[in-house]
Write a structure and sequence with these properties.
This protein is α/β, with parallel strands linked by helices and 696 residues long. Helix content is 43%, strand content 25%. Strand 17 and strand 18 form a beta hairpin. 33% of the residues are buried. It comes from Kushneria konosiri.
Length: 696
C-alpha cells in the first residue's frame, strides 16, 4: 500500500478526532469516521450542510461560527474551545482547530479538526478546583489530596509541579513506568527529566512570563512525538509561590491528521506525485529564488499519446496502472532537483531548475520521450505508448507560473499537431498561431450564417470505371479574407470547439438535398466526426436529413473512421446500430491505418470499407502495400462487404485494382471534387482517361 493510501486510511479510520473539509463558505465537503462518532450524523446527512449546525443556537445568532472562519482566513489558523451539539441534541465540550487552505494566495477551503475534550475539561477543572479547595480548606487537606491524586492519575494530560528555586519535582501524576496500558501514547516513553529539560530550554529562549504555551517535537523509541505544553506560575493571593505547573498533552495524532490533510490537498491520489497546486507553488518559489537568473528555470508539459484509446479498450484499471508506471519511469531520469507533477488525466508537468539553455531542455525531453516508448507490462497486457512534450524557459517576459504553463501548453499543442511522440520548444510565433486559431474559431462561428461553408462532391465508380455509383461530400470554407480554408485546418477547430455538431447537421441536410436531384441509383457519402457521436442527437440529425429531403435511406452512406470505435466503443456501436436501423449504410473509412481493424469488422456489420489511400499510392512499387490491398479485397469478398479504393491517381493503379477485384474506385483519375453544378459534366469528360489502354 502506498503512502497516499495509508494517509487516506488513517484519516478515514481515526475515531478520536472529527476531521472534515469545508469550502470557503463553511459548507461541509468531507467527513471521517471520527466525525460520525462524535456528531452522530452519517456522511449522507451532513455533506453539503454548513458547519454552523453544530453550534448552540445563541452562538449561531451571534455569528460565532463565521467569526472562526474569518479568524482562520486572516491568521491561517484558528483554535477555540466551546460547547457543540450532536445530532441527538446532546452537547459536548470541543477543542476545535481550523486551518485555512490556500491555492496561490486564493482561499480554497478549510480543514477542521474537532476533538471531544468534555472529560478532559472536566478533569482539568477538577484539578484546579481541587487545588483551590486544598488551599482554602487546609483542615480537609488529607481527604482532598487523595481525591486530587485520583483525578491526576486518571487523566491523559501529564501534570508536573516544579520548585523553581532548586528544580525539585513536587508533583507528577504519571510517568513512563506508572502509565496505564490503555493510556499509552508517544509521550509515555518520555521521562520527566527529559521533558522538563526541553521545556526549560524553550522557556529560556522565549523569556516566558507567568504563563506560556509551547509546542515541542521530540524523538522517542516509537518515533517523533509532538507535545503541547501549558506552563503556569502558581500564585497565592497574587503572590508567586516559586512553583510552576506544567500541563503536557500528546498531540501527535492531531498533528498527523493535519499533515495528512495537507498532503492530500497537494498530491495526486493515484500517483502520489505533486498536483497542480503544489507544482504551481514550487514553480513560483523557484522563480522568486532565481529572479536574477530566470533563464535557468525550465518547464516541460508531457501528454501521453493514445492514452484514451488504451483506457477505453483495456479498462480504467489498466489505464491507472499505466499512469503509475509512467510516473515511476519518468522519475528515473530526474537527478537535479526537478519536480514531476500530474496535473490532469494523462498530463504531467516537469519543473527543471537547471535548464542551462534550450538544448539542455530539449535533451531532457528527448530522453523522457525515448524512455516512454519502451513497452509497459500491465498485468497481462503489454502496451506501447509514448509522450508528446512542449517546453519553455523562463525569461523577463515569461516570469510567472501561469505564463510558463501557457507557453509550454502552446508548445505541446504544436508537438501533437505535428504528429505526436515529439518535442517542441516554445517560440513567440506559437502564441501568434494560437491567436490565429482563436480568430479562425470566431470566424467559423459565423460561417454557417454567412453561407461561407459549401460542399464539393467527388465521384465514386464501380470497378469498371464506367458507371458512377455516387459521390462523396467534402466540406470547404470560403473565408471572406483568407479565401478557401483547408478542412485540415478548420475541421479540428470545429471539433475542439463543438461547432462540428451544428456544421455536421448542416452538411447532412445539404448533401441529402443535393442527392435528391440525382438518379435513384446514385448514393451520397457523408463523413461523420467522432465528436458527433458524443450526443444522442446524431441519430435525430440523420433522421431529420432524410425526412426533410425525401431521399431514400439506402442512398445515404455514412463514413466513419476507426477512432469512433476506439472512443467509448460500446456507446458508439450502439449509435451505429440505431443509424443502421434507419436504413442508411455504414462505411469504415481509412481502413488499415488504425489499431484493430480486423476486430472492428467483427464488432459491426459494415456495408463498405475504404482502403486508405496510402496503400493505393504505394501498391505499384511496394510488395507490402500490394499484399495489404490484396488481403483487404479478398476479405471483403469473403465477408460480402464492398471495398472502395480511394486515392486512385494513375491508370496502372486502376488496372491492378481491377485485377485484385476491388468493387469501387475513387480518386483524381476518375474525377476531382467539384461543385454540385459541375460534377455531372466533369465525370462525363473524364471517361476517356480512366483506363490504362486509353492512356497508352
Amino acid at each position: 500500500m502506498d503512502s497516499d493510501a495509508l494517509y487516506r486510511q488513517l484519516v478515514q479510520n481515526i475515531t478520536d478526532y472529527a476531521i472534515y473539509m469545508l469550502d470557503p463558505e463553511g459548507t461541509i465537503l468531507s467527513w471521517n469516521e471520527g466525525a460520525r462518532y462524535f456528531k452522530g450524523y452519517c456522511a449522507e446527512e451532513i455533506l453539503g450542510q454548513n458547519f454552523s449546525c453544530f453550534y448552540m443556537p445563541e452562538e449561531r445568532s451571534s455569528g460565532l461560527p463565521m467569526q472562526g472562519l474569518a479568524a482562520a482566513r486572516r491568521n491561517g489558523r484558528h483554535e477555540a474551545e466551546g460547547w457543540r451539539l450532536r445530532k441527538d441534541g446532546s452537547a459536548f465540550w470541543a477543542s476545535v482547530v481550523i486551518d485555512a487552505i490556500h491555492d496561490n494566495d486564493r482561499l480554497i477551503g478549510f480543514a477542521k479538526i474537532t476533538r471531544d475534550i468534555t472529560e478532559k475539561r472536566a478533569q482539568q477543572q477538577q484539578v484546579l478546583k481541587a487545588r483551590d479547595t486544598a488551599q482554602q480548606q487546609s483542615l480537609e487537606l488529607s481527604g482532598l489530596y487523595a481525591f486530587l491524586n485520583t483525578v491526576l492519575h486518571n487523566i491523559p494530560t501529564r501534570v508536573l509541579v516544579e520548585d523553581e528555586a532548586d528544580g525539585r519535582l513536587l508533583l507528577c501524576n504519571h510517568d513512563a513506568r506508572g502509565s496505564r496500558e490503555d493510556a499509552q501514547t508517544m509521550m509515555t516513553h518520555l521521562a520527566n527529566d527529559t521533558l522538563l529539560a526541553r521545556i526549560r530550554s524553550e522557556l529560556s529562549q522565549q523569556h516566558a512570563g507567568s504563563s506560556s504555551e509551547l509546542r515541542l517535537k521530540l524523538e522517542t523509541p516509537e518515533g517523533i512525538c509532538r507535545l503541547k505544553c501549558l506552563t503556569l506560575a502558581i500564585m497565592d493571593d497574587g503572590r508567586a509561590t516559586g512553583q510552576r505547573l506544567y500541563l503536557i498533552d500528546d498531540i501527535t495524532e492531531e498533528h498527523t491528521a493535519q499533515a495528512t490533510i495537507r498532503h492530500m490537498a497537494h498530491h495526486d491520489a493515484l500517483t502520489n506525485l505533486p498536483n497542480r497546486l503544489l507544482f504551481g507553488e514550487r514553480t513560483q518559489s523557484l522563480l522568486e529564488t532565481l529572479e536574477p537568473h530566470l533563464d535557468q528555470v525550465g518547464m516541460l508539459l508531457l501528454d501521453m499519446d493514445n492514452f484514451k484509446t488504451i483506457n477505453d479498450v483495456l479498462g480504467h484499471q489498466v489505464g491507472d496502472e499505466l499512469l503509475c508506471q509512467m510516473a515511476a519511469r519518468l522519475r528515473q531520469h530526474l537527478h537535479h532537483g526537478e519536480t514531476l507533477a500530474r496535473i490532469g488525466g494523462d498530463e504531467f508537468a516537469l519543473l527543471v531548475p537547471e535548464a542551462r539553455d534550450d538544448n539542455a531542455l530539449a535533451d531532457l525531453a528527448h530522453t523522457l520521450a525515448i524512455s516512454a516508448r519502451i513497452p509497459f507490462q500491465l498485468s497481462e497486457h503489454r502496451v506501447q505508448t509514448g509522450i508528446s512534450l512542449g517546453g519553455v524557459r523562463a525569461s523577463r517576459d515569461i516570469d510567472s507560473f501561469e505564463q510558463l504553463m501557457r507557453c509550454a501548453d502552446l508548445a505541446l499543442y504544436e508537438a501533437k499537431r505535428q504528429g505526436k511522440g515529439r518535442y517542441e520548444t516554445f517560440h513567440p510565433e506559437l502564441a501568434e498561431l494560437a491567436r490565429e486559431r482563436l480568430d479562425l474559431e470566431n470566424d467559423l462561428r459565423n460561417a454557417l450564417a454567412q453561407q461561407e461553408l459549401f460542399l464539393l462532391y467527388q465521384p465514386i465508380y464501380d470497378i469498371s470505371g464506367a458507371h458512377n455509383t455516387g459521390f462523396e461530400a467534402l466540406m470547404r470554407w470560403r473565408h471572406p479574407v483568407r479565401g478557401i480554408v483547408s478542412p485540415l485546418e478548420f475541421i479540428p477547430i470545429a471539433e475542439n470547439s463543438g461547432l462540428i455538431l451544428e456544421i455536421g447537421a448542416w452538411a447532412l441536410v445539404e448533401a441529402c438535398r443535393e442527392a435528391s436531384h440525382w438518379p435513384d441509383d446514385q448514393r451520397i457519402s457523408v463523413n461523420l466526426s467522432p465528436a458527433q457521436f458524443g450526443r444522442q442527437a446524431l441519430v435525430e440529425d440523420v433522421a431529420n436529413a432524410l425526412a426533410v429531403t425525401g431521399i431514400h435511406p439506402s442512398r445515404l452512406d455514412l463514413e466513419i473512421t476507426e477512432s469512433i470505435l476506439l472512443d467509448a466503443s460500446q456507446h458508439n456501436i450502439d449509435i451505429l446500430h440505431q443509424l443502421k436501423a434507419l436504413g442508411v449504410r455504414i462505411v469504415l473509412d481509412d481502413f488499415g491505418t488504425g489499431y484493430s481493424s480486423l476486430h472492428y469488422l467483427r464488432s459491426f456489420p459494415f456495408d463498405r470499407i475504404k482502403i486508405d489511400q496510402s496503400f493505393i499510392r504505394e501498391m505499384c512499387d511496394s510488395r507490402e502495400a500490394l499484399a495489404i490491398v490484396r488481403a483487404v479485397t479478398g476479405m471483403g469478398k469473403s465477408l460480402e462487404i464492398e471495398v472502395t479504393a480511394e486515392g486512385v491517381e494513375r491508370p496502372e493503379q486502376m488496372a491492378l485494382l481491377q485485377q485484385e477485384g476491388c468493387s469501387h474506385l475513387q480518386g483524381f483519375l476518375l474525377g476531382r471534387p467539384g461543385l454540385a453544378t459541375d460534377i455531372l459534366s466533369q465525370t462525363a469528360d473524364a471517361l476517356e482517361f480512366r483506363s490504362p489502354h486509353a492512356a497508352s
